[in-house]
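step: validate -> pass
step: tokenize input -> pass
step: predict -> running
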Amino acid sequence: MLLTKYKYVYFFLILVPLFLSLDFSSGIRFDAHAFNQLKNISIPFSLTFLSILVLVNFNKLFNTDYLILSILILIYLYINYLFGTFNRALITSILMMMPLSIYYVLSKYYSKVDYKSVYKGFYLTALFIILVKFFTDIILFKTLSSIYFITTKIAVYNYYDYYPFIYILIIILSFYNVENKIYKTLSIIMILLSYLIIFNMESRMFAVLSLGIIIFIYIYRILKIQLRLFLYIVFYLTITLTILISLFDLTPSDPSLKVRFKHWYEYIKNFSFINIIFPSQIAYRQEMNYGTFHNEILEQFSYFGLLIYYYYYIIIKIFSNVKKEFEAYSFTILVVLFIASLLQSNLTNPFLSIVWVNVVLIFKEYNQREQFI
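step: predict -> pass
step: emit ->
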């Protein structure tokens, strides 16, 4: 019923850029942003009811992958406690487990619905939100792209860092629509509009990645490498690139890149064999326990070591278990997230993870057992 009778309401709640500030000193607020930092972080409003849904359906988490990963993370959390890096490791572990928890619980609901109907519901809802934001930005804020949604009382948290992915996603889904003759004219308009907005969002990383979307789709089709294997190749290329950059004390002219590369270099330069098992033993990790390395995989490795390989084994399995017609698009979504992870956490960002989990669940190839649970 959640994804049939109320699908448009549900998709609106997970896609609307409404972020609840956890700083309640001045009441309930949704207006925290980069230039209006409140005392505490903001979380997607959708996370509140999804957390309740996960708790109510906690038994759905009792599968082998999830349980093994949970036990291993608990062991590493104890190790981080011994090295004084527990607090940040705990936050990182929660962010890692959140998309998996939501994925396994929501599978129960998605397995029972017509994926074509749900896909159209998701796409049309996303389109509606994007168009509302676009026209209100022009009319109310005199710009093609603002940090606000409809009013200054609602700000898109981390607008420049993460929200551009929504337009990347719409471009990817619109290419699927054009190919399959679904809302063809509307989808072409959304492709052009999304590119226009992305290049006016001051997000160079996603702007560049948006240009690679059609390339990623056709690379997958031309090379005809099995989806899971291809995603592993991209994953290891991401790790290799991180290591290569970390080996040198690079000082690019861009201040943002300079800070990021410095973190990687300082962590890797004192790395030894024992740190494969105890990655948080490195002094720089302990000194930087208040913040991130701005590299998702390295950040996770610095607390959980080789455990991240099992974590990404699960992530890649999720993105690989999709219907044939969606393979190139699932591949493209994860490639974009992997490349972007070099500079920030994307897969485990609360808002983005809720969005990609729902998309992959629409793409998912459900077996007969799942459909009757």
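step: describe -> The first strand starts at residue 19 and ends at 21.
step: cleanup -> pass
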